[in-house]
Amino acid sequence: MSRPVEGSTLRLTSKGGLKERIDAVEAAYEFMLAYAAQGVTGEEASSSGTEIRVQLKRSDCALEGLAGLVKELVTARGLEPTQPYSSFIDVLDRDARSAQAAIQLVLAQRAISSQLVDNLNALIHLRALLTDLFLIDEVLKQASGPERE
Fold first, then answer.
1. What's the rounded Cα separation, in Å, for the pair 12 and 25?
2. What is the pLDDT of residues 64-111, one digit of tens each?
3. Where would I find the H helices in the chain?
4. How many separate domains does the chain show?
């Protein structure tokens, strides 16, 4: 089952889509950096004010079930030994849930100021999540390549 994300063409499915999810989280982070620099108080009705919500919702949606998706990908590739993958998926899950909780907290606010987004950008869980995603993406790419010695 897939669900559309308001304001975008992103459709997330329970299978596949890791690249799409990474792209959504990374794009939101990059947009947040620019938004934080604008000095928006949160009271203005602007296109960037609307877009920040769209970007945050895309990121929130991309994080839903992320660890389960990575587990499916690891299992489908038959990657072994399983313990290092399982342990890292646990780390990814914690970081994704922590980042998602912060994103949802920001989305719950009536107005989203640049300062609020700047604080979200600085959140260690969000930065850790991005690094987790880049790491597992590279591991999976290498695992799909030529046989290791």
1. 13
2. 999 999 999 999 999 999 999 999 999 999 999 999 999 999 999 999
3. 18-36, 47-63, 66-77, 82-107, 114-122, 124-144
4. 1
Task: In whole angstroms, give the CA distance from residue 90 to residue 67.
Answer: 7
Q: Which residues pair with 12 in a beta bridge?
A: 3
Residue 149 lies inside a defined structural domain of this protein: no
What is the Cα–Cα distance from 14 to 72, expressed in whole angstroms?
9
Q: For 27-59, what is each residue's pLDDT tens digit? A: 999 999 999 999 888 765 566 678 999 999 999
Q: State the CATH number of the domain containing residue 60.
A: 1.20.120
Cβ atoms of 63 and 96 closer than 8 Å: yes
Q: Scan for tokens 């945050």, then name that residue.
A: 56
In a domain, 13, yes or no: yes
Is the CB of residue 74 less than 8 Å from the CB of residue 85? Answer: yes
